[in-house]
Each structure stands twice: as C-alpha cells, then as structure tokens.
Model the fold of this input.
Amino acid sequence: MPEIPDLEAIRGFLNERLPGQTVAAVEVKVPHVVRTGAAALAESLPGDAFAETGRRGKFLLFALASARVLAVNPMLTGRFHYGPAGAKGRGRTCLRLALSGGAELRYSDLRLMGRLYLLPADGLDAIPNWTAGGPDLLDPALTEEVWLERVRAYRGRIKNVLTKAEFVQGVGNAYSDEILWEARINPFTPRTALDDGDLRRLFASARAVMAWATPLARERMTRGETLDYAERRDFFRVHRLGGEARCPRDGARITDIEAGRRVTSFCRVCQPGGPAFS
Ligand SMILES: [Zn+2]
Done:
C-alpha cells in the first residue's frame, strides 16, 4: 500500500514533468473506480492542463488549470505509471491519460479498491470522510506539541494509534514498523505506557523516517523518464524481514508477528517488550 514516502516520491517525479502538460486523450478502462462519474471525466478532462500535484494523507491531488482536482486514493493496490505512450503496461489499467508532451500517465489497480474523484478545487469535502481524518504527518501545523496533545487521546497499542487516520494521516502498516524501530519502541506497547519523552522521540522518528525513505522510494520507482511503482522496498530495516538476523543496530534477528492480515515486524533487542511468543 503506498504510504507517504511512496506518494511523495511519485509526487516529486510528476511535479518535474506534469505541470503545463495538457490532457490530449482519456481512456477509462474501469469506469467504477471513478466515483464522480467516468463519463464526466472522459468528456471534460481532454484539453485541461496539469498544475502542481499535491498530497494529503494517502490521496494524490492532481490540480488542473480548470480549478478542479483529480483526487486519487490508491488504497491497497492502486499504482501510478508514467512513461512513453504505448509502453507495455503493468497491472490492471483503470485510467490512461495521453499527455501533450507525448508521455502517458496511467493508473492501475489489481483489486480495484482505489478511488478517483474529479471535483472543483474547493469541493474536496465531497469525498467521503475527507474532513474526518487527522492532520497529515508532514503538515507543518502538526508540531511536536500538537502531536503530544493529540496522541494522549488514544489508549491502544502504539502501532494501532500510528496507523489510525483520525490521529494522523499517511502512515500505514509498513512505515509504522519502520518508525517504531527508529524510535526504539515496541509496536505492541500501550500508548499509556509511553512517557512524554517516548512520544516526542516517536514524533521525531516519524518525520525522520519519511525524509529518509522518500528518496529511496523514488530511486526504486523511477528510471529516466519512466515511473513504475516498486512493490519491493528493499531498504526497509525491519518490516517483513522476520527471521533474518539483520537489525541494523545490533544484528539481532527480526521478529514478524502476523495478526489478521497484517504483519508487524520489530527487533526484540532494541525494541523490548510486547508479546512473549514468537
Ligand atoms: Zn535491534
């Protein structure tokens, strides 16, 4: 699932290429992913031009010259692709936009859980739950003090708090493991067992992991003028590395614990606590 570093990497790449390009042609291959109507999108997008692409939480926000925004939440399996027109596409293509510069932008989605909305720039609150979520992790208004105040409202295990969109947006299962490793906090620790020092360190770690991972994610996803989502994020320090003796801090064996359909990974040496079983 794309999280902040992946989406920031895509955003950075596209912002060097998309602004000013006009949509030359639109092909909607899976209409129901376009929640605001595939026909309306196919009719009104040609001729419109891209401005800067933004992001909020797990949404990429493609601003258009017409004062509209194409908002895309890729959910689990939505992927963005950019490259020469007609290149062999990976994944299940849902939307293909031919661009005036000769390249094309594609959105693919294997499980078709992603959601696209074409809305007026001032009408994004028509997106379900748009106003219900907490601040984006990278929102400058989310200061350490605001973080402390917000996190105190939650009592569950710290990993579950970190991945709750109503607390903070943009962190999912994979990067929450990386953040907790960075902060040396066991993912199963109840929030109430963490003191202010721990919670401040968690905030700094969250921001540091985003800054560290974004250029690495970009490196894996892009080659020259081509962007393709990389499924393998081989720079992770703990996530899904269970059984391997490779904690970068102490060389200890990483533990993976599967609960539901989520894997939580951590190092028992530098992130002590949590369940005793393995
Ligand atoms: Zn360790």
Q: What stands out?
A: DSSP finds six helices and twelve strands in the chain. The chain has two domains: 4-126, 144-267. The mean pLDDT is 95. The first helix runs from residue 4 to 15.
